Amino acid sequence: MPTMRKCGMSALAAMWLCASVSQSAAQGDTITDVGTTFTSLFSFGATNGEAPVGALVQATDGNFYGTTVEGGAMGDGTVFKITPSGTLTTLHNFDGTDGFSPEGALLQATNGNFYGTTAFGGANGKGTVFEITPNGTLTTLASFNGTDGEFPEAGLIQATDGNFYGTTSRGGANKLCPPRRTLTCGTVFKITPSGTVTTLASFGEEGGSVPFSPLIQAIDGNFYGTTPSTVFKITPSGTLTTLAFVSSSYAGLVQATDGNFYGTTEYGGNDACDGGCGTVFKVTPSGTLTTLLSFTSSANPVAALIQATDGNLYGTTGVGGANNDCGGSAPGPTGCGTAFKVTLSGTLTTLFSFDSTDGSGPEALIQAANGEFYGITDGGGASEACNSQSVVGCGTVFRLSLGLEPFVETQPGSGAAGAIVKNSGD
Predict the structure, then answer these.
(1) Residue 188 has pLDDT above 50, yes or no
(2) Which of 49, 162, 226, 308 could form a disulfide linkage to 68, CB 3.0–4.6 angstroms apart?
(3) CATH homologous superfamily for 14-408?
(4) Quick check: helix, strand or coil at residue 6?
């Protein structure tokens, strides 16, 4: 489920009188917790962006790229670059006409440029798909109009056919979604590199609805994803199949080396939390669902898992952990969130507990080519520029070091025979 900050992102559309800037990390505190070395690389300060979401992407130049849903020169969000040592450069400030609130992760495509979506704005006010070069030149490829989808809240993937695929949380042909049956249920779409959008499927209540998460392309060539109530498969031609029923799944899937899919639910499982603290689950390609663990001392995982080079899964919870109270009155953990490791059999290890000064509400992790993990938090940090209502801090970029070895990662991760790939850091 989108956080309160994400749901209210358009509320901070105030004008910030600044241009794109480059600046060094505000702090570099290093803390060791449960064998994990944590380094805070950067704290956002509103003028350079606020509330980074999704995940970072490590580009072939070795730097990391991401988005903030708020802040920047116009208050409508930014695209940024950050070096491994923490120097941040704002590449683009959204102004509404070219979209606002870029919620999903960026993708570096085979041509070296980055592609992403904005949840709102554009020509029709219903979201966009954009392309941006590494030096910050942005092109709007498509503006959704409702019939072809609206509110693309997740990022894109580039499939083996060279096209991009994604989801919209509303729009499309069906009007069967609760609570009012007049609301459209979302879509799966394909967009060519030149910007031609094709709707592959429109969700309806029976097959799941309102997808907030990105797709993955599995080794069988099909696409897999989640809605808050289902795990689904869709073929490149648009045949949609429900594989399993889940509860409150707002994150994408990862296909592990065992061929199965792994994901999280924000709620459900242990009743120590109001509505349950959330779970990690496994789904086989044929649709057999297994709950691997239920969270208790931490809760509400809303970001996708990743499988690291050691074979284990890594992820984050939005609340809970060992440190101070980050607010909330419902029963259950109220800390600032955690980073965790879980084996494929379901053994959980909490790696780090956030304490607001180093971030709160951690988003998805990535493993960089140096073997270390990098991530963002959508709140917390050193800046007080964003302190309003219950939100404290503008968000952070951080690094977790677990001692895993460097590796070579190709960009893209897959492609047709004969396709050109690069290694991260080339």
Answers:
(1) yes
(2) 49
(3) TolB, C-terminal domain (2.120.10.30)
(4) helix
